[in-house]
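Final report, results section. Input specification for complex C-07:
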Amino acid sequence: METVLQINNLSKNYGNLQAVKDVSFNVNKGDVYGILGPNGSGKTTTLAVVLGILNANGGNYQWFDEPFSKLARRRIGSLIETPNFYPYLSLWENLQIVAKIKDAPEKDINHALGVSNLLKRKHTNFGHLSLGMKQRMSMAAVLIGNPEVLVLDEPTNGLDPEGFAEVRNIIQSQAKEGKTIILASHVLDEVEKVCSHVAILKSGELIANGRVGELLSTDETVYIRSERMGELSQAIKDSNIAKNVFADDEDLAVILNTDLTSSDLNKFCFEKGFSLSKILVKKQSLEDQFLQLVK
Amino acid sequence: MKKLLSLEKIKALSYPAFKTLMIIHFLLFFIVVLAVSQIHFSIPGFSVKGLYQFPNIWEYFPWVASWFNIFLAIVLITLVGNEFSFKTFRQNVIDGLSRNDLIKGKLILIFTIAIYTFLMVLIAILIFGVVFTKDYSLNLIFENSYLILIYFVQAIGYMTLGLLFAILFRNNALAIILFLIYFPVESILRLFFKAEYRPYFPLKIISNLTPKPEFLTIASEKSFTNADGVSSLDFSEMGILPKDLPLGITLIMATGYIGFFIALATFLLNRRSL
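Structure output:
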């Protein structure tokens, strides 16, 4: 598998504050890689360092198995934090600057404006756009030069639900084209719907990374209650039916193994001689999973 | 180079404040030289016309234009400061320019503005000179014409100092205020040094590239030069004003300072986060 981005023990300090601590992970070609974390967890700082905007205090990174170079930059389309363009220039002029920097043909400008649904506004000054349109303009700039990799930091920031869906569609269509996408977000739903892999940051540290399905599974949790809770818990633990069993207030929370349902659990309890006074099935939300991880 | 020039062209020429400031610069220069040309002294034996005649005009016009070079430096600070305020330097780097490209782009802009002001002063000199000089020859016209090249270096000097201030303070208002304050500050600082060291300060060196013309000698309709060709109305010769360094040394030192400003600006831009 070809590695697009390799981050090794990256650290970045702002004075005494360590914003990124010894972070390492790899992004492979074709991955849609989410960087997930609460505000202030170091997502933007990590991306700003690997894009050469901020200087690292420790560690290193490589793009396309080489130290970051001018040529590598042109293979990457990036949107970091807020859209940064000249407010007194029109969308067309702003994208003309981007196209010239990337050595991209001017026809890319119309295409990018079309994809971002801004073609009708191409002569409007950037400063006159709403926040949502500015964000879409950033997406247009990212697409100029048909980059192999898209680095998107909170691309749906400030967007209304319609804009949110539009940007998500753009990302998904780019992913379908086989582009590698690195997406930093604190919106779980966005990561779940778009990403194949995820790295979770908390206070600048990498606390988990891997496939979204593995890290943020939405398994069903079955809440049961019986008079003999201790014995029931032990019986379930001794069997092979559950991935995890834990006390939740007065209930016993059971995360069943794949392919098993609450009926199977009910049957198991009946066969073992436990009568249940409660059986409730809840799908564990992504948010619960995420909060458990970053707690 | 061509790419960076075209980028700077889009950024500057579409910026309304840049266009306004450049028009004001142009008008101010022409208003001053036109207004002074209309002054009539009531002192017998003195006329302002001498300032507008070849070869004196090569000294006088660059000196007048040099005051407006400070204005050009402020224009430059505004353009560079905007890149920090709008975070567009950051975006340019994200899109594929290196930090050295950012500096090169601004140096190209400085060079282009310096060429503009050089041509403006050159054309003004040729027009006013021809109008005000009665009998002129090619030799007379181009005598002292090298002074305009020195004016060109001075324009670059002020603008590179402006570039350094803009990169150092990253804020338009702060950089402009501190740039303007630096003028009196350096003058005061110079007083703390022995007289022989005073001409070597950066602003003194750059401003001395276009020294103040000897107005009394030029405006006088009689000759006030002695047998050695030195003006007897030269206040430096009289010991009233301190003597400046020879122009050649001033030019070399100014070039050195320009190099230093550029190197420091490049170092700062590479060292600090965008």
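The radius of gyration of chain B is 21 Å. Chain B has one domain: 2-271. This concludes the modelling results for the funded period.
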